[in-house]
Each structure stands twice: as C-alpha cells, then as structure tokens.
Amino acid sequence: MAKKVFEKGKMVPVPSHSIIPERDLHKSPILECSHLGIDFGGLAAVKDFNITVGRTEIAGLIGPNGAGKTTVFNLLTKVYHPTRGTILVDGMDTSGKTPAQVNRMGIARTFQNIRLFNNLSVEDNVKIGLHNHTRYNALSSIFRLPSYWKQEKIAHESAMELLSIFDMQDLADHKAGSLPYGAQRRLEIVRALATNPSLLLLDEPAAGMNPSETVELMENIVKIRDTFQIAIMLIEHDMNLVMGICEGICVLNFGQIIAKGTAEEIQNNPVVIEAYLGKQKEG
Amino acid sequence: MKNLLKKKTTRTDFLTYLGVIVAFVIMFALQQADMLKNSTQGMLVPVCCFVVMAVSLNLTVGILGELSLGHAGFMSVGAFSGIIAAMSLEQSIPSDLARLIIAIVVGAICAAIAGFIVGVPVLRLQGDYLAIVTLAFGEIIKELINCLIVGYDENGLHVMFNLSGKLSVENLNMTENGVAIIKGAQGAVGVDKLATFPMGFVLVMLCLVIVLNLVRSRTGRAILSIRDNRIAAESVGINVTKYRLMAFVISAAMAGSAGALFGLNYSTLSSTRFDFNTSILVLVYVVLGGLGNIWGSIIAAVVLYVLPEALREFNDYRMLVYAIVLILVMLATNNDQFKAMLGRILPKRRKGAAANG
Asked: Hey, which of A63, A226, B21, B79 has its CA 20 to 30 A from A267?
C-alpha cells in the first residue's frame, strides 16, 4: 500500500529552487517574509527576518539553541503576531489571521514537543487534520444523512492512504498517546499533511530518532515533497539530515539571519562556524 | 452493517441505546400493570430529566473539557419558559401532548439563547473563568426568576419584575379571567402536570442520539481535539471558538428541554429548586459516570437519584455519602494499582481501555 502511492505518484524530477531570493526571482514563491520581527518585552527575539521559499523547495532553518527558530515557526503560523514585517503565503498577506485561518491558507506544521490528540485514535487524529476537507454539517451527522456516510467513507480512505506514507495503517485503531515516540512524530507529519498544505513546517522532525530512523525519515521527507509537490521547511539539529536533503539552508543566530545558501556554502561559511563553535584564536 | 458493529464505539453506542430501551420497557410495563409504589412512580420523570442533564453536562465537561458550574441555571430557564409556554397555550391548544412538546421545544430554545449569551463572551477565555461565570450565571438566573411575575389573560402575557419586593400578581392588571403563572418568590403555581414517562424516555433517547452521533462525526472530533490539545487543534485549521460555542449551546439546549419536562411534572415549582447544589449534583453524576462516558453518566444519574429517595430515613446523610463516594471513586480511578487489579480480573476490559479510552 505504502509503495503504491509513490509508484502511482511517479517521482517527478523537481527543478531545484532555492530559498535565496536573489537566485530565484522569476518563480512565484509560496512563502515570502520581509523584515519580519517580534519583540518579547525589550528583547528582539527575531529581527529583520527575510526569506523566500519556492513552491517545491526543501528549506532548512538551523542555528544554535535559543536562536529563535521555533519563534519563526510560531510567527509563520500566527501563534505569535509579529511586531514588524509581513508574511505572504502564496502572495496573500497573513496579518490579522488566526492560526486556523493560516492553516486554511496553506501552512501546516508539526511541533517540537509533540502535540497529538493523545486520547483519540490514530485514525481520528488524521481525520481531524482532514476536518476542513470533510464537507457535511452538524445536522447531517446527528441525523446520519447520506452525506455523512459518504463523506466519512472518503475521510476514512484518505486517512488510510495518508497513514500509508509511513506504513502506519495497522496502527489506525491505537490511541495516539500510546504510540512510541518515533511513530508519534510521524503521525504529527501525517496529520499536518492531511490539511492539504502547500507549505509544511517541520519542527525538529528527527529529534529522538536513531540514525537508521533518521535516514528513513529523510527519504520520506523527499518522497512527500515529490508526491504532494509541496514546499517543506524544517528546523533540525541533525546536520546529516539538513545537509542531506535541504536545497537551501538559512542560519539563524540571536534572532538574525547570519547566512543563507546551499549546504556547501553554509558548511564553509566562517560566520556560521563561529556561531556554532566560537571564534578561532588568531595565529 | 456487520462491519459497523465490529467497531467498538458503535457497539458501545448500540448497547447504550439498548439498555435505555430495555429499562424503559420494563418500567413502563410495571407502571401500566400498577405494580409500582407511589414513590417510585413519582421518580420516573425526574430520573429521565436528570439523565438528560447528566448527558448534556457530559458534553460540556467530558467532551468539550470545560468545567461548567451553572448547568441548573439552563435547566431553570428551560423549566420556567416551558411552563409559561404550556400554560399560556392552554386555551388555543387543547392537546396535552402537543403542549408538552411545544413546552420542551420552547424550553430548549430559551436555554440555548441563554447559553449563547453566556458563551459568546466567556468561551474566549479558558479554564477557571468559565467555571466562575457559569456559577454566577446560575445564581443570577435563580434570583431573576425569584422576582419574576408572569400572568396570562385574553390580552396575552403580562410580565413584570418585582425588583422592589412590593409588587404582586394584582399589579399585573389582568382581566378577571387572568391566570397567574409565576408568582415571584413562590415560583410557578397551579402548573398542569403534563409530563409523562414515555415523553421522558423519548427525550432521553433524543439527547443520546444527538450526543452520540455528534461525537462520532466531524464536529465531535473537532470538539474532542480542542479538549485534547487546543494549540494543535488550531494548527490543523479548526475554528476553536465556533466549536466550543456549539458544544456549549447544544448542552444548554438539552438542559433546557430537561428543565421544561421537569417543571411540568410538579404543580408548583420555585426557582430555588435549581440552585448551586443541583448543578453540583449533576456534575457529580458526570464525574462518577466518567468524563466523556455517556452510558456511565446515565447509570450514575439513575443510581444517585434513586438511592437517596429509596433510603429516605438516611436522607440527612445524603450529602455526606455523596462526598465520600466521590472521594473514593476519584482515589480508585487515579490509582494505578487499582487499575492493574481491575485489569487482572477483567483482561478484556484492559484491552478495551487501551483501545478506547
């Protein structure tokens, strides 16, 4: 079942875009942030954050602890409202929108500390992700009208197909909270995908996974991009993952972008090395 | 159909309906055969009302996950609006059953409006605030109805608020055919006892169908997701305010319908009948039956309503027993050793608990 989806989806070679706007101006980007910033009290947690993400790009956001990476995700999904700057999703301004509205505009996310609906089944978790794509109202559910049965059947099939991405169909009836850690992380990705996003934000997807699980996750992230043709932006500390799959990488330190570029460029950037390892003694 | 019954949730729902129907058939047969004691006979309708109350409060507390301490307030709104509707329509609609149904519908609508008015400002907040405001709402409604004077004559309804405490039914200026419906602190008097046990059963079934079908649907999943993790629910595009309000209003409407039935079961009814104690009593049914557990609520409501009446001579200790039972149940359900013991005795139950909740 799992393989079928991807075989059918045909691995289309995706032209590589970059998060570096200077290099990719001719394509309309899915996400554009300009001069984005937020203050917590007197502290500028994020300053002058400019980034552009292409439609089928895998972008990485890295930086030392406390650099403001998750704050950027919270700004993009309107958990926080930015003090300065604008966010355009597919050319539309998100100012004044609620997190739910931003999701409907096409941004879905996972959380650093997993936030599943622990008391509900795995299948229900995915179906909640499908909420805005299941079309019937409360009345037809109370009276069990034909639209209820029809839409529920579709929801069940879509949920199973989405779960098959990670071979999780067999877990459908388990409670989400009882799953092992890695499966919970995968389920969060499936739930986010169920909302049919055009940009998927993954907050430390490989946290707590062992090397072989991480390799599998890397393959799956690329597969998801190729199958659904969406942009993916991820925060990750595992450099093998970031350098392995991210087409464009953005390095954040103290709330500011200190470098943008491809994996190779980032690896050899002295400013990045300094941010991670400290300044090298002269001589 | 076979596939449907295989699902555990569907099977539980099916058994819940079946249980209620069987209980009704037995009690109804006994009632028709005149084999019930007078005291038991008198309890049939109130039990149905409190079952509906428990099921509806479970929607707010167990399924939506918000503590509401003013559920009796909604019952009160439903009771008095239902009584007014039933009595003012006495001339125009002679059929008792039709008037009873109208009263229940009016009660439900009025309580839903009250729920909406309370819910809109409060549901933007979280947690304790809701509990405090619903508690205040219950008390305010009680006091408001305490000074409400309503009468009915050929010219229609006469409504007056006796805020000074000096007014009485005479001040309504009704014609000599006028009937006083609600007399301030005395409450409703001379109410037609329209409520019947079969109607109570129909109401219970209706509420069960609404709650159970709602929970197993898109709407119910949205409500459950808000309870489990509000931030995550928002992140997948669920309009949190809308679904919280929806659950709250539906719950209030059902409490109102129960109130209307309850009000029409007694010839006199004072607003102090729906005080804070009643709210807490219903909350006790819900907590004892298990949060989010509908059949649990039903059983708890029936047992805890019938028990104190059956043990009338120990009535003084009723609240004491409630307190002790509550503490014991909470200790037991939060105790891992107790759960493990239950699991050893009933291995099937343990499996079910892992899958369902």
From this structure: A226
Task: Give the range of the structural domain holding residue A166, as residue numbers without chain letter.
Answer: 120-194
Look up the domain containing B253 and give its range. 45-275
User: With 50 as the cut, is the pLDDT of residue A15 above it?
Assistant: no
Alpha helices in chain B (DSSP H): 2-6, 8-32, 38-58, 71-88, 96-122, 128-146, 197-215, 218-228, 230-235, 240-263, 276-289, 294-310, 318-333, 336-345, 347-356
Chain A contact set for B238 (CB, 8 A): 100, 128, 131
Q: What CATH number is given to the structural domain containing A11?
A: 3.40.50.300
Does residue A188 belong to any structural domain of this protein?
yes
pLDDT-based confidence at A20, cuts 50/70/90?
low
- Contact call for A117 and B229, based on CB within 8 A: yes
In order of B96, B102, B234, the CA distances from A105 in angstroms are: 54, 45, 13
pLDDT given for residue A2 in this prediction: 35
A268/B contact by beta carbon, under 8 A? no
Query: Of how many residues is chain A composed?
Result: 283
Global pTM value: 0.86
Question: What are the mean pLDDT values of chain B's consecutive 10-residue runs (357 residues total)?
Answer: 64 91 94 86 93 96 91 96 92 90 97 94 80 90 89 84 79 80 86 92 96 93 94 94 94 97 93 91 89 90 82 71 74 73 64 43
Q: How many CB atoms lie within 10 A of CB A160?
A: 15
Looking at the 3D structure of chain A, how many domains does it have? Answer: 2
Chain B interface mutation, best of A115, A131, A152, highest count of B Cβ atoms under 10 Å = A131
In a domain, A166, yes or no: yes
